[in-house]
Amino acid sequence: MARPRGPRFKVARHLGVNVFNHPKALKRGVKNHKLSDYGQQLLEKQKLKAYYGVLEKQFRRYVFEALKSRGNSGDVLVQNLERRLDNIVYRLGFGSTLRQARQMVVHGHILVNGKMVNIPSYRVNVDDVISLREKSRKNQIFADNFSAIQLNVKYLEKDVENFSGRLVRIPLREEIPVDLKDSKVIEFYSKN
Known about the structure:
Elements: H1 8-15, H2 37-52, H3 56-68, H4 73-82, H5 85-92, H6 98-106, E1 110-112, E2 115-116, E3 129-132, H7 140-148, E4 156-159, E5 164-167, H8 182-190
Antiparallel strand pairs: 1-2, 1-3, 3-5, 4-5
Helix pairs in contact: 2-8, 3-4, 3-8, 4-8, 5-6
Protein name: Small ribosomal subunit protein uS4
Family: Belongs to the universal ribosomal protein uS4 family.
InterPro entries: Ribosomal_uS4, Ribosomal_uS4_bac-type, Ribosomal_uS4_CS, Ribosomal_uS4_N, S4_RNA-bd, S4_RNA-bd_sf
């Protein structure tokens, strides 16, 4: 499974946004450069890829799927990325970071509607129940993460007693906690 590797905090400083949601990511100063229109589009694309930990080939598929959709392409793109299983597992608080959440999915700790799914890019549908496997509930790290991390999005529902959560509805673009101009990403790919 391919995934982004390398210096995360350096990437966050370059993008100027704490895309990894880590307290130390932006400790050092961020350099502000005057960017051309193309440079701004490229930066927004890199930001969105970093938020969700997606590589270029897979990201292009998400973009072209969004371009073919009926709704606002930028909104659809971010909504589809937000509904990735690894991201939902992270938002529910099973993992303290997106990388940890992805690892939990790949190692088979997560169930979707009672069935084990180990594909991080699996798209969660409305009313799908995401839960922690029975064996994995004994793992203290997972239990601590899930009970300690507060749910801060309205489109998810969390059931702490049953170690589960549910996608209540498709998230609205303004509810998704990513700081970027998705129209720039769409412009970047519309030229190609």
